[in-house]
Design a protein that fits this description.
Elements (H helix, E strand, L loop, with lengths): L1 E6 L5 H10 L3 E4 L1 H9 L4 E3 H5 L14 H8 L5 H9 L7 E5 L3 H5 L6 H6 L4 H11 L5 E3 L5 H11 L4 H27 L18 E7 L9 E6 L11 E4 L5 H14 L6 E6 L2 E7 L3 H11 L1 H4 L2 E5 L5 H7 L4 E6 L4 H8 L5 E4 L17 E6 L2 E6 L11 E2 L7 H14 L7 E5 L2 E6 L5 H14 L7 E5 L6 H10 L1 E6 L6 H11 L2 E4 L8
Parallel strand pairs: 1-2, 1-4, 2-3, 4-5, 11-12, 12-13, 19-20, 20-21
Antiparallel strand pairs: 6-7, 8-13, 9-10, 9-11, 14-15, 16-21, 17-18, 17-19
Helix pairs in contact: 1-9, 4-8, 8-10, 12-14, 14-15, 17-18, 18-19
Length: 523
């Protein structure tokens, strides 16, 4: 039996080659890999010696030869194939170990040139992998060092590689080639005629790995599965570890993402409660318990059966408070042992842990999506993600009344929450907590009224609150509604044809109005 080994990443290859040689497998190799094996004392034959044809064109041509591809593609159960090999002096290749030129790593470098990228496009490697993977019934193909340990164990314990394993390795090989080609296409499709890089490629190649099948989709008659990016960002939902509870549902995952994205946008200790993709309670506090208690007060009714997310550790006191209500999913960076013991009594509660990215909460930006994608009929909408971060320096006070320090803090808090509320969004806040949330209405007036009604149902007074509106007030009537409810300061993007009318109304009512210059529609 013969094994051809040609790897760019040499991790673990000596152990693998040693295991193969111990089973009497003849080793074939190329270039640097052949030298590595020979230097380790392993008997190895250069592919050039096997083919009788030297490597050429700076290594661009070395394995593109009938003696390589004939040995990989010949069906052992086809007599005519085996006779053809015999007639042409070709030996079978029964194991192929190949990993490709590091194209993805090369183009990820800030100083990568087009020439660098082109030279790291592997040609012979993918061709061999495809040949071996196609002939999986006779050839085992390994394309990643992570596969070596299991391969060696099976080879040593069973003396061969099973049909099941060969097929799994074949699928993995085709997936690797698909991802590799997609990476090349994505990179080259972004290059404009003048050599600059475009924000959106001429062709988009989505690459996602299935994490799990789901019981059903948004509704029981729909089927569903959960996928992650090929290279997930640190601190994102797909990196979560489920510590206990029932299997996550489609809606659980969608709502959990909304809660997690919102809570990780705060530097202070924060809690976000989400129901049907909208925050129904958000607050910051000195610790998790205070943040949760304030967030829950916003809308206890909607919080029932909601998703609760923290950006700080959950201790026993917080766990006891949370466990008094019905919660579907709980998310946090960490839990104390005592807190986990409390939740064990609520066996159905799904408890997720998402590790903070390196650098802690100050490094949340590493976990942000760069692009948002939405499906439409037979197509996609792509846009850069709404990662805009507002600072105090960005604010423009347009009213005669000037905001106090406390109002500015609450205005910034309210604006941050409004970013994660479905449009049209109106958010009343005070003292680092939401007091009333109006979401997803066709009319901004209705969102304002709903926020007021919800505050009333929760027994909260809106007197002295601040209000965030995710988009401008097209008329003064929206401002009048929130001021009538008790708001004394408003933050909004500005940009309406009637801005002067709305500013005049703010001055007439004696309230603060601040412009951000940025809109946060969320559909």
């Amino acid at each position: 039996m013969n094994a051809l080994i040609s790897v760019s990443d040499k991790t673990g290859v000596l152990e693998l080659a040693t295991a193969l040689a111990a089973k009497g497998v003849k080793l074939l190799s190329t270039g640097g890999t052949a030298k590595l094996l020979a230097d380790a004392g392993l008997p190895v034959t250069e592919v050039a010696d096997m083919t009788g044809f030297p490597e050429m064109l700076d290594g661009r041509v070395k394995t593109l030869h009938p003696k390589v591809h004939g040995g990989l593609l010949a069906r052992r159960d086809f007599p005519e194939h085996m006779q053809a090999l015999k007639d042409h002096g070709i030996d079978t290749i029964d194991f192929l170990i190949v990993n490709l030129y590091p194209f993805e790593a090369t183009v990820a470098k800030a100083n990568c040139t087009l020439e660098d990228a082109i030279e790291n496009i592997d040609i012979g490697g993918p061709a061999m992998v495809r040949s071996a993977a196609k002939n999986w019934q006779d050839v085992a193909v390994l394309t990643d060092a992570s596969q070596y340990a299991g391969f060696i164990e099976e080879l040593n314990t069973q003396g061969k590689i099973s049909r099941k394993t060969r097929f799994a390795l074949s699928v993995a090989a085709f997936n690797r080639i698909s991802n590799y080609d997609a990476a090349i296409s994505d990179y080259l499709s972004r290059i404009a005629e003048d050599g600059s890089h475009m924000s959106f490629p001429a062709q988009s190649n989505g690459r996602f790995v299935k994490l799990q099948d789901l019981r059903y989709g948004e509704n029981p008659h729909q089927q569903a599965a959960f996928y992650r990016d090929l290279y997930p960002a640190p601190g994102s939902l797909v990196t979560a570890v489920q510590l206990q509870g029932k299997e996550l549902s489609y809606n659980n995952i969608a709502d959990s993402d909304a809660a997690w994205e919102c809570v990780k946008s705060f530097e202070a200790n924060a809690c976000v409660i989400v129901k049907h993709a909208n925050p129904c309670g958000v607050a910051v506090g000195t610790n998790a318990l205070e943040a949760y208690s304030k967030a829950f007060k916003t809308d206890p009714t909607s919080a029932f059966g909601g998703i609760i997310a923290f950006n700080c550790p959950v201790d026993e006191a917080t766990a006891k408070a949370v466990s008094t209500q019905f919660v579907e999913v709980l998310i946090a960076p960490s839990y104390s042992e005592a807190a986990l013991a409390v939740f064990q009594a609520k066996a159905n509660v799904r408890v997720l842990q998402i590790s903070l990215p390196e650098g802690g909460k100050s490094a949340w930006d590493k976990g942000l999506n760069l692009m948002d994608v939405k499906r439409v009929g037979s197509g996609l909408l792509m846009q850069t993600a709404d990662n805009h971060q507002l600072s105090l320096a960005d604010l423009k006070v347009v009213s005669k009344a000037q905001p106090t320090k406390e109002q500015l803090q609450d205005l910034m808090f309210a604006w941050n929450v409004a970013k994660y509320v479905k449009s049209n969004a109106i958010v009343f806040c005070q003292g680092g907590m939401t007091m009333g949330v109006g979401a997803g209405q066709m009319s901004r007036l209705d969102s304002a009224r709903i926020a007021s009604i919800k505050a009333g149902h929760a027994g909260l007074s809106l007197n002295g609150t601040v209000v965030a509106s995710d988009a401008f007030f097209p008329f003064r009537d929206g401002l009048d509604v929130v001021v009538d409810a008790g708001a004394t300061a408003v933050i909004q993007p500005g940009g309406s044809m009637r801005d002067d009318e709305v500013i005049a109304a703010a001055d007439e009512r004696g309230v603060v109005m601040v412009y951000t210059g940025v809109r946060h529609f969320r559909h």
